[in-house]
Amino acid sequence: MRSTVQSNSLSFSEFLQLPETKPATEYIAGKTYQKPIPKGKHSRLQTRLSAEINRVAEPDRIACAFTELRCTFGGRSIVPDISVFAWQNIPLDERGEVENSFDLPPDWTIEILSLEQSPTRVMSNILFCLNAGTQLSWLVDPEERSIAIFKPREQPEIKQNDDRLPVLSLLTDWNISVRYVFSGLNFS
Fold it and tell me: Do the beta carbons of residue 128 and residue 76 sit within 8 Å?
């Protein structure tokens, strides 16, 4: 079952005044959609990927991965599974702490496809982000064991097996393969 439209008559400013929901609700092209609750494979991939990115990127203050972070820009309010921001792009408050509101596109988004999600809507969010300045997006498909790579002004690529994955350009020394991403699902 795919996520359904929650409301057709809500303005963007009205949506921004609503309390957060669990799972998150996104505002896309004048409509709201509630994301599905992550199940085992989705949750494991999301947790492991964000931890790996932060293991590589945080010590040298290169970038930071955030899970389920609301990003509001360009008339949409979306919640990618993983949003990665270059360190200098992370919004900070007056104390130098991370802001609660992110009103800019991530530098890199990672979406993990759930059976309940519309792939077209997920790709629409990816393309929206790329058009707003996102440098890289992954669409991870746990069922197919593949990852679709999206970059601005390029055709998407499908990566599988031992294919190396492109990462945020700031992470010059990091290599990761499709097989490694999905190896985290194996607990036997």
Answer: yes
**Phi and psi of 131, rounded to 5°?**
-70, -20
pLDDT tens, position by position, 112-170: 999 888 899 999 999 999 999 999 999 999 999 999 999 999 999 999 999 999 999 99
Mean pLDDT across 3-27:
80
Look up the CATH architecture of domain 37-183: Alpha-Beta Complex (3.90)
Shortest CA distance to 99 belongs to which of 64, 48, 127?
Answer: 64
Determine the distance from the C-alpha atom of residue 174 to the mean position of all C-alpha atoms in its chain, rounded to a whole number. Answer: 19
Give the pair of three-digit tokens for residue 129. 């982000």
Backbone torsions φ then ψ of 111, nearest 5 degrees: -115, 135
Task: Please work out, in degrees rounded to the nearest 5, the angle formed at the alpha carbon of residue 109 by the alpha carbons of 103 and 112.
Answer: 125
Asked if residue 20 lies in contact with residue 42, where contact means CB atoms within 8 angstroms, the answer is no
Q: Where are the domains of the chain?
A: 37-183
Backbone torsion region of residue 28, taken as left when φ is above 0, otherwise alpha when ψ lies between -120 and 50, otherwise beta: beta
- How do 31-34 and 76-78 pair as beta strands? unpaired
| CA pair distance 52, 107, nearest whole angstrom | 17
